[in-house]
C-alpha cells in the first residue's frame, strides 16, 4: 500500500495541480468549470491529510449503503489522515463544488488540532457522506469562499489564524447538518438497528459451534457494510445508546437467561458468552443489572 507523507507528493500522484501552500490546498470550481479530476483508478493508498470535498454533479451510480441517493444536491465527504482510499473506473462522474486538503501538521499549535478529533464523521466511509440541501450548500460554500480568498492572498501574520477560524466554522456547520441528516433518516436508522440486532443474534447462534468470543463493533460494522463510527453514532441518535452499550445489554440479557440454569457455574456462563475473564463478566453484570450474577441467580431462581 502506498503512503504519502506530504500534501505535494499526494497531489503529484493524483495528477492534481500543485498546492500553493506546502500544507494546504483549496480547489474550487467556477460557475462554468469543473474541479480537476484525479486519476480514474487507484490501488489502496493513504496519506497524512484531512480532506473536505463537496461533489455537486455526479454521473454514474453511487449508493449510500444499499440505497441510491441523488448526489446532485451535494455530497460532502470528509476524510481523515491515514484513512484507506481506493477507487476504480467503474463509476464515471463529473464534479463541481470544492476540495480542501490540509496536512495534519497545518493544525499544530491550534485548538482545532484537538477539536477535529472529536468530529466522528471523519471516520465515516464515502457511502456515509453528508447530503446537503440547497440552503446548506450555500452556507458551506460561503465559508469556503472566505478560505479560498485567504489561501490565494499573500500570506501574513494573520493568514493561518483566519483560515483555521474558517475551517473550525466549516466543521461546526458540517456537524450541525449531520445531526439534521440523522433526524431525517429515521427509517434508515431503524433498519440499521434491526440489522445490528440480527447480526448479534447470528453471532451468538454460532458461538457454541465455533467457540468465538464477544463480537467487536468493528466486526459487526464490517458485516453490515458501514463504518464503526457511523454505526455507533446512528444507534446513539436512534436509541440513546452506543453500539458498545447495545452489545453489553445484549450480553446481560443473555446472561440472565443462562444464569437461571442451575447446572452452570458463573464462570461457565461467562465463558459461554465469550468473556475471557469471569471476573470482568461479574463486574459488568453487576454494573448493568444492579446485582452480582450470584445474587441475581438467588433472587430469581425457580422454586
From TrEMBL:
Highest taxon, organism lineage: Bacteria
Pfam families: HTH_18 (PF12833)
Gene3D superfamilies in the record: Homeodomain-like (1.10.10.60)
Limits of the HTH araC/xylS-type domain: 198-299
Hydrolase as UniProt keyword: no
Keyword line: DNA-binding, Transcription, Transcription regulation
The UniProt record lists the keyword tRNA processing: no
Protein name: AraC family transcriptional regulator
Source organism: Postechiella marina
